[in-house]
Amino acid sequence: MTKPLQDQIALVTGASRGIGAATAKALAAAGAHVLLVARTTGGLEETEEAIHAAGGTSTIAPLDLTDGTSIGRLADAVAGRWEKLDLLVINAAMLGTVSPVPAIDPKEYARLLTLNVGAPQALIAAFDPLLRRSARARIVAVTSSVGAEPRPFWGAYGSSKAALENLVTAYGEEMRSLGDLRVAIVDPGATATAMRAKAFPGEDAATLKSPDVVGQAITDLVTGDFESGHRMRVAG
User: For the domain 9-233, what is the CATH code?
Assistant: First the structure.
């Protein structure tokens, strides 16, 4: 039986754990060959083992997304092996310190913006040629409610997500008349992840939805149809 993402190539950032790992597994189960990107080799290998055990296929690509040169090398390597990129899931992000705006540490904020905004721009720039070669390219950017609804003490992270949303959606608009490339913004909502635990240390993770729920929701989204600029919040 043909799977909905058969013969498609997907790249997922932050694929070593949490929502990224769950999304990679769900995409692989739907038939995609998934390129797993994150800094932690051990975590990537765990994700890859789970994908292969379930009958899927994947390739790990350990790298630091804050290094634009590494992103360029990855794009060159992918282009040397595959002729296109069908799916790009921008998930990797840094929370930073939850603090009042005047207390934001400039150096930490610069690192946060580099990973949360600069790296996605570098990924889009590097993979733009491969995305254009896909007959049905899709980009999903994982955001947070604080990107659209400012919250006290969340200015650093929230501003990075607002910038990410604007950046990715602008690219979708630029590509609207150049082919079937569409962009979606996904807010996972309260999910049991390491980042969530850091932000809300007293919260009972058992009351939150699993990253698997979000991974499947993203997979269902990209296998279906949506207009570029579509926004979705994952219920649960």
Answer: 3.40.50.720
The residue with tokens 């949506």 is 226
> Among the options 157, 159, 161, 167, which is catalytic?
157
Give the residue extent of every domain in the chain.
9-233
**Torsion sign across C-alpha atoms 84, 89, 90, 96:** negative
Instruction: Name the pTM for this structure.
Output: 0.96
**Tens of pLDDT, residues 153-198:** 999 999 999 999 999 999 999 999 888 999 999 999 999 999 999 9
Query: Catalytic annotation on 171?
Result: no
Is residue 125 within 8 Å of residue 132, measured between CB atoms?
Answer: no
Backbone dihedral angles phi then psi of residue 12, each to the nearest 5 degrees: -125, 125
Scan for tokens 């540490």, then name that residue. Answer: 105
- Rounded to whole angstroms, the Cα distance separating 201 from 188 reads 19
Show the beta-strand stretches assigned E in 132-172: 138-142
